[in-house]
Amino acid sequence: MQSFNHLITTRPHEVRQVLISDLHLSPEEPALVQAFLALLDDCLALPALKRLFILGDWFEVWLGDDVYLSLSEDERQTHWLTPLIVKLKKLRVAGCEILIMHGNRDFLLGQPFCNLFGGELIYEPYTLTVGQQNYRLEHGDALCIDDKKYQFFRKIMRNRLTQWYLLNKSLEKRLAIADKMRQKSQQNNANKAAYIMDVNEDAVIQAVADSDALLHGHTHRPDIHQATSNKKRYVLGDWRLLDSETRQPKVSAVIGIVTTDENSDNNNAEFELVEFKFLMS
């Protein structure tokens, strides 16, 4: 796995697609927000970039599009999301598609918010063609079937009726519900064995059956695994703030890139994991 300080690659003309996951952005972690803005600057500098994928948990919590859409113009001027929207819109205008998948933290994210910058919600499983191979993309939480309690919770939260119910609550009540769910999740996870919160091998084999490879996030365990004898499972990493007590903290994330030699066609495209690092000034 290659590692880059700030810049995604030393081969900018070859990068066609960038895939990220588990940023968990919030106003409480400004370093992660700045790192994402830095990644967008990198994306804007890639002359052949066609797609940016965000495969879930873009935000630490998302209480509904109306939290931002209901703001006045003056309120938006100082909101922490506005710089992200401005830069994403520049990227879209430059010709890069922005494709966003729900995670377990931001399942209430809607198309109206994505419309602000020309983004598009996509749903799992999503098929990405890389060269002559089909990659199955998903957030990853659906693969953790050993965690029975979470899967029950996920089924309820992904139900449209549940989401309609939540979005029709006041913002204050939604905040209270989200805080309660977060506390309960932390308590439950503290008592779970590590394997329960990871993907299940049988679920992986079933997921990759009709694809050539599997790509997901969620587990915060970036790596390349052998899913079957001839198929790989790629895991994107969460965005981590490192050395936070030092003079120059940094953010690190394992992301995916699809590259194609500028002198060849798309049939020769390749996927790889790279480490993106952003040093705080």
Structure description:
This protein is of the alpha/beta class and 281 residues long. It has helices at 30-45, 66-69, 73-77, 82-93, 111-114, 148-157, 160-167, 171-190, 201-207, and strands at residues 2-5, 15-20, 51-55, 97-101, 120-122, 126-130, 133-138, 213-216, 223-228, 231-235, 240-242, 250-259, 270-279. Helix 1 runs parallel beside helix 4 (82-93).
The helix content is: 25-40%
Instruction: Give the mean pLDDT.
Output: 90
Sheet bearing the most strands, described? 8 strands, mixed
The span between the termini is: 25 Å
Strands, total number: 13
Q: Helix and strand string, N-terminal first?
A: EEHEHHHEHEEEHHHHEEEEEE
The number of helical elements comes to 9
Low-confidence stretches: none
Class based on secondary structure composition and strand pairing: alpha/beta
Instruction: Estimate the global geometry from the Cα principal axes.
Output: globular
Radius of gyration: 19 Å
Percentage of residues in DSSP E strands: 25-35%
Protein topology:
Layout: E1 2-5, E2 15-20, H1 30-45, E3 51-55, H2 66-69, H3 73-77, H4 82-93, E4 97-101, H5 111-114, E5 120-122, E6 126-130, E7 133-138, H6 148-157, H7 160-167, H8 171-190, H9 201-207, E8 213-216, E9 223-228, E10 231-235, E11 240-242, E12 250-259, E13 270-279
